[in-house]
Amino acid sequence: MRYQLTLLLTCLVLLVQAQQRYSTVTYFETDSFSLELDLFLPETPSPVLKPLLIYVHGGGFSGGDRAGGHKLCAYLSEKGIAAATITYTLYMKDKSFSCDGILSEKIQAIRLAANQLWQATAFFEGQAEKYGIDPSKIFIAGSSAGAETVLHAAFWDRSVMQLYGDPLPGRFQYAGLIGGAGAIMDMSGITPKTAIPAMLFHGTVDPLVPYGTAAHHYCKTDATGWLMLFGSHSIYERYSDIGADVELHSFCGGRHGFAGAYFYREQERVVDFINRVLSGAHFQNHLIFQKGDKNAPEGQVFCRD
Does pTM top 0.85 for this prediction? Predict the structure, then answer.
């Protein structure tokens, strides 16, 4: 009985400690909705302003929630990096984000999420002193739909694509981005001036978000939801062409499940990327894993022997 009571008390203490590891705050609200984020701050005080990573969860803009970023954010906070995981509008809930969807709705889903990421960024810009954050060292990261969000947030023209008014200074740029199985609709915005350091990872035979350049979900051209996307490998090639800092991790033969590879495990790769960027290192790396898949469809493999 005493053992069971001790075990129960220990579990309660651990639960309270886990709950105290982050604070939940409202980062944006209108007359019709409000959005929250969970903020993980390093426990060890430091006189130096901290870098911040804002994480955007996946789920096809119809599911998922910010708790999906808790493991990554907790790990980063243990390494001295502030981290937040955000809620955003799941515009595609009860709608199709596939080939039978509506193109304008798919684009609106990405636009809403990118705009709300800008709002979360503006929140931290305004609260930087309170949280001890360096606003020049804000990184963004996302998995799948979250990766599509961070890529568009990084490279869209805010003056054109804003929905709530541009909340950020005109010259604002993120310090870097990390995308798991993401893609972008238009690469013309990736220029020598705008190409912030990027770490990308993607399965080479992802059937949903193309690794190279293809239609979303590989839809036929007459599909109502047809949307051309430039995936991680195409973005890597664009970065390489303009001499920008980029690292691509290709999982040869991997499917969409690799979208969360470094967010749910091996989070040290995220920390390493952030530290390299902050140190001013320059890099163009392509790391290939499980090289030589022989069963991948022709035209979808960039890492075959």
Answer: yes
